[in-house]
Amino acid sequence: MTAARWRPRLAATLAEIAAAAPAFEDEWWIIGSAAAALSGADIAIVRDVDLLLSERDARRLIGRWASAPKSTAPPDAQFRSKVFARFEKSPLAVEAFGGFEMKVRGAFRPVAPLTRERRGGVFTPSVAEQIAILEAMGRDKDRARIAALRAAL
Predict the structure, then answer these.
(1) In CATH terms, is domain 3-31+44-125 a member of 3.40.47.40?
(2) What confidence category does residue 89 fall into, taking pLDDT thresholds of 50, 70 and 90?
(3) Pair 80, 72: CB distance under 8 Å
C-alpha cells in the first residue's frame, strides 16, 4: 500500500479515535508507525494505529466500540497489555493497549511516555521519546522507524 493510499485512511482512523477521546480520563498516545508518520517521518506504510491507554480507558473504549469487530493478539514474550483489543472497524485497524508493558533487561516495565504532543486531534510522544521507545523495542521494523524519525528531526 502506498502512502497515497494509507494517508487518507490514517486521517479517517485518527478522526474516529479523536471522537472517542472525550470519554478518556487519563493521558493517551498514538505510538508506532502512525506516531512516526504524524511526526513527519517518511514512513512507507501504516497498517494500523497503536493506541496507548490506561487500563480504565482501554476498557471504556472497548465498551464504546462494542459493536466493532475485534480480534486478539497471540501472547508475546516481549510485550503484554493488561487490556488489549484490536478493532477492525476503522479504515485502519486500531490496536488499543491498556497497561502496556515491554520486557527491558529481562523484566516487564510499563510503557508510559513522559511527553505528550498534540498532532491535530490526537497525541504522540515527542520524536525523541518515540525514538527511545522504539530503541527499547529493538525490532528490525523499529530500526527503520528510528532512522526515519531521526531524518525528520
Answers:
(1) no
(2) confident
(3) no
